[in-house]
């Protein structure tokens, strides 16, 4: 493990200044991913700027009826917040579906969005990986890829984004706020992550040195009836092999509004807009739910060993939407 | 000075009553020190460097830069390490795995082979320098393709004969009313015990001391004596607390490297393996492919049984995972053939892992029995009862207690098996399909020679000294109860000291033999001591010590089929939309000798059954064909059942004391695993109607296999 300099920031401008333009410096949130990567040598920062004590640990209602979530709010606090549970239940469920109690107590919202893929080739510095060493190759395409991407990937990288929280946030049109030395900025979460293409090492559209300061959820009445369903290879403490965040507003058996996002199928939380278009105005029944899933999954390009994910996601969409529709009909 | 006060009449026996671990408080408060935590003055820290290629030769170990790094004391590698002796047979009757005899040559036989040890003043400096060490290789093509039908596979003995055969198999199969012919596979599995391997070596007054985490201090001391050509009296190995072993904690690279470095540097050196290093340096359970052919009469009586198993081993050490072994004990047939084969690949050496042979073998055999029950239309419990052999199917020897039928009857009663609808795929609960399954279990009941010393102290207490190992089993507590009963005193007057090779030779914690072997020696010494103590007479200040050695007593045991048995039952729910399998409840009833401490025995059996759930549904180490190394070699990538995967598990036992053992013990370390995965897999079939013959039964496999509603 490389020796590193550790600094703790007291305020946002101070944190941004401490990081400066140093490409070898990293912000440290809960450390539940970065510290692991430092242990395995994937990350070798010269300096860590600890941002966990910044005054960004509040969850507050916005004037228009949404929520503003600070970047250092822990996963545990986010999942427990009464307004999150009431207005965006899928978000609370997604957070609780991730990691373990101990990790959720440490992990932060900002860090969750910027966590790295858990691809085993990325994690092993003795192997090639285009994300870690651009141009070195992607062994997953012909190697182990049971849990790799079926949507939006390229021959250069088929890794998936591991976040559960991000899937729900994507479904609810979250906007990410950040701070740089040149001032603040915002990005819709759906636009935070860059397409994989031939630059899988470039993961986000954040400017260099930017510090994520929070996430804003716009008001979304549809989210009050929402659900997150995660499938994994054991009952707890594992990353998803497929997940769905869904919200449904049904009136007289017709879908008025639907939100749908997929996890563990792409390099980012995957907003299923094609499926949403099929659902809107359609009867709330299994036939249309399946058609919506098929519309989204038509773009799927599975590898030899991860084709099951297409079946899984189709089944999940139908199951979760059916449950929400039944709930609405009650 | 007090007087001798062992009882002439026995108090209420301690054996058979629940007793918390005697070191439990120390463990939960952190007072118990594990090998990697014990402080030493002037301690240096070694970090192993492992090969990144799967086959080839080391071209160069470029030490110059690393030796100049802060705190670095030495870099050991094949160019400067002392030569050791590997041409010997160890206590287990096998030569050492050359993976442990580090730095002897430049050849790389598998990915993750130890190529160097970097020693520094602090663990962090050693780690940084080890990561910076440049090793260049001449790469050669590797072959890690494990599969059935490899032409280079060959029959191999291991700890039992490679093959057994009687009768005309093809003729009996042809004459059978029902035939099952199926191939089963189990993946590479790892011990993944909580405490990583750790050893500190130091020379003290001409004696080599090793403070270690292992499954037998006598075993490790004997290996080090032989490997380093030392006098037996010149080596002392201690291992007081062990955070799990499961077969993996024998002689490994870390102890040998620590001894080399301590010798070279003349100061104590500690080597701790990382979790990732454990995945290539400490053994594992080989993947298996098993083919089973069963032929039966219309009523399910077996006429033909063939069980062929293949496992992989490294190119440097032969290890046989004898999966066809259980068939030699469980079921007889007019024609009976069993074969264990191995194939040598460019992979790390596998080793003993909890129920070696029985765990994967019972999955295949007991799943095949379930398929036969389906073909014959006979209830799976009844099918097994109909095929109970009177004598060892292969040996012809009588069974020294075979209470399998009692386990099935009691288990079926408590599980509510009676009236079970045998049809698969018909029980639905929402999106889930429900099913139940059962399987039989067996594990050999053996004992290893041991010596023990029991001392009556002047203060009226007793001290037992024995080179036993408590690898989390509760052995220390069990021996306390056994000694108390033999001395006819209360357990709180007995102190058991273990984990020190200076206490005299004793066998290892393995093969479900530990507690039985040690209890035998402790009983012998304690009973003799009790006879020696004269009631009312004074105990001198130095105490009165009696020693025992069970070698002769064990040698006099009659040849018989000696085994523990068990019946496993499981209920599962399979979510047909996601392929998720969840075990809802599990019951195991065992005939496993006299149970010394019901509290820790239940933990051990439930732990074994939990292991079975994990084996059935979760565990698989994935090897990357391009590199020959593991993919995701950590506890995030290698999935073990979590608490949420483990339902209410009930384990209990029938009365089954071993008549030839002084305490009646058979051994319970492994039997809980055996058959557990088969019971789960059979329940998955009963739920879905799909036979999963490859473990683990993961969502991707369930979804691919399809089935009703999937």
CATH topology of the largest domain in chain B: Aldehyde Oxidoreductase, domain 4
CATH class placement of the domain at 222-329 in chain A: Alpha Beta
**What is the quaternary state of this protein?**
heterodimer
Category from helices, strands and their pairing of chain B: alpha+beta
Q: What structural class is derived from the secondary structure elements of chain A?
A: alpha+beta
CATH architecture of the largest domain in chain B: 2-Layer Sandwich
The biggest beta sheet of chain A reads: 5 strands, antiparallel
CATH class group of the largest domain in chain B: Alpha Beta
- The total count of helices of chain A amounts to 12
Domain Aldehyde oxidase/xanthine dehydrogenase a/b hammerhead (chain B): 29-141
Region (Disordered) (chain B): 1-20
Pfam family, one (chain B): MoCoBD_1
InterPro entries (chain B): Ald_Oxase/Xan_DH_a/b (IPR000674), Ald_Oxase/Xan_DH_a/b_sf (IPR036856), Ald_Oxase/xanthine_DH-like (IPR016208), AldOxase/xan_DH_MoCoBD1 (IPR008274), AldOxase/xan_DH_MoCoBD2 (IPR046867), AldOxase/xan_DH_Mopterin-bd_sf (IPR037165)
